[in-house]
Design goal:
By secondary structure, the protein is mainly β. Helices cover 8% and strands 46% of the residues. Helix 2 links the parallel strand 1 and strand 2. The longest helix has 23 residues, at 8-30.
Length: 609
Amino acid sequence: MKKKLTNPNQMKKVCAMLVSAFIFMMTCGAQTPWDGTIAGSYDGGDGTRENPYQIATAEQLALFAYDINNGVNSEAHFILTKDINLNGAGGQIWTAAGTVKVTWLNQINYVVEPAYPFMGVFDGDGHVISDMHVDNADVIGLFGCTYSAEVRNLIIENASVTQGASAGIVVGEAFNTDIEGCTVSGEVRAYGNKVGGIAGRYIADDNDNDTVSIRNCVNNAYVTGGVMFLGGIAGYTEMNDGVFVIEHCVNNGEVGDMWNTNAAGGIIGQGSFIIRHSDNYGKVSGETTAGGIVGQGGSFGLIEYCFNHPTGEVTGGSSAGGIIGTPIFTTIRMSGNMATVTGDASYDMILVGGIAGSDGSISNCFNTGNLVGIMDVLDPLTAQMGGITGSPTEGFVYNVYNAGQIIRPTNPDLTNYVYGHIIPAFFNEKDIRNCYYYGNEDIPAYVYNFGSSSYTYLPESSAISEGASATSWVLDEAQYGTTDLLEALNAGAMGECVWVEDVEGINGGFPLPQPRPYDAVAEIVSDPVQVDVYPNPGNNAFNIRTALTDLHVELYDMTGRLVSRQEITDIVTTINAEFMPSGIYVWKVYSGVSTGSTTLVESGKWVKK
């Protein structure tokens, strides 16, 4: 005879135990830790876009990797239907999906070729892959190698990715791959060449100049190791015959190892890229060069509407910038740094800038972060610090301001140094103008001009004083007929952006750049989408497609100089740009050629790589 429970407290305890057991079984049922086995089939589907293979267990995810690594279903469509626990804490090591052939040229350089890459579509459908541990392979991540693939809507939590020549939590080597809506956390601690929170190396080499991208992704992982290139989103990027764009991405994780990383960036370590509307909140450090958004540029770079926030402190061994350490053919527009930037000499010299550590083409940008120089080495050579860039630029600097404090090195052995509110020195043939600065009263307003071997003031520039309110600022010398900083910035923006007051107090009350409304850029005749310019970015030519007639197009460089004027005589007109230098151009299409009276139809930007 069974004994009945009559004590109410006993009954409550039993009920509580049953509820807890039920919740435990439900939770474990959804994320049963992996035991290393491989399933014999998927949970459903036939691999088409309309009916993708369904992955509901870790065993089925292992089947997916096994198939891809053996050239099976490599172009199929897959979808996660449940959360998955890969049980890295229990000793299970994940084998990345997609393999490569790696040929090492020496201890540092190597050539990677896809062997059995993933070439299909993987949709996480918002589900979580947790506790993934990947170790001891040349190319590692959830995916080892992808080619012309899509990976989207995926969350990877508590990942541990170690070793690897190319390592990322999502993918080690990505060729022509679109990655969207992915969020990762954990740690990437690799000792290879290219390491990133999302992707280790990302290559755009599509012969059709197609655009591939990483969009709407977030890295919360700690990214470090003894590597060449380290980035919160991607370690190293290349644009060959294709175009690579990072948009609306965020890095929250700490990036870098001060004495073991060549180039470190909050978004990208080094490479060629277009980065738009992305933010860094994590600390960044690199032995040679470091930047809040990018460590070092490559053959082409464009950064716009990117911000390094106060928590994104940057430390570089020889070159440190709030946005980019060493630009190299990089243009930075409508971006800003709010974090402390430190140059901590490891090569007897430092170059420190609020936007760029050295060089750069910079417009409509700001710095409000402090700049710090440390030179504790025995024989310091050079210290160069500027509120916007830390060296004479090969590009241009205009419509910018610096409100950060410049804290110079105190080493008594330092005899070669130069500091500037905006730039420490310049060449008089360069376009340096409309620069504004606040504070640093002990630094002279003039800079050394190499073109005339003398000191001079920056043209059309002025110091800033506090205004009547916390968000108003007054120029000591009027520009564009006004002493109001906000008005002057908007007058000098050249249509790139709109400067607005810092009403939310996120930038110390100083103005912020925002995208310009489309209808404020040009007078629209009728249909707002009636002129198409492509490819953009392009190389030696671009096309204008329109059904309108009686038109001509004018092309201006970023100094406002007219570089080309041509009538539009067909539905598609090709504009020759072969002899134009790389950079950003403004195109304007006018109607009324036959009558001599012109009306602006549309305008926009075109980027030559």
